[in-house]
Amino acid sequence: MHGWAPEVIGAVGKPETSPAGYLGVFFTDSEAGRAAGQQVAGRVFGARTVDRDATTSWQTRLAQYDAVCAWGQPNHSLLERVSAIDKPVFVANGDSDPMILPRYSYLLAGLIPDAQLKTYPDAAHGFLFQHHAEFAADVDAFLASA
Length: 146
Fold this sequence. Notes:
Rossmann fold; 2 strands; globular; single chain; mainly alpha; two-stranded parallel sheet
């Protein structure tokens, strides 16, 4: 993975991210995806006024993107190194994630000997918010079995 798709950068690659841009990357455009996105956006962009996380700065977001580009350089020999991971790994993603394409999750899980892969249906980058109860149960089950 070397950077993000132009539509992702257009939606969230600017200092001020709008709720519409956030929703477009983190949730699918289906009825269920839009409903889940509206619920999460209500919590993220307004309902909670106390005990909130600090807003991520533009400099932090740029540094994250730079790291994605630097570490995502195509290098097959470095990618193969993950096959040496000898611990159980849980890889999760939305089946329609435009930011981290699902094929990368399949690739990663296929290279790690004891990996479990779960893709969440009708979900994008915000799959863990949209499917929060199922995701939490899956993580609990994974940790209990590891």
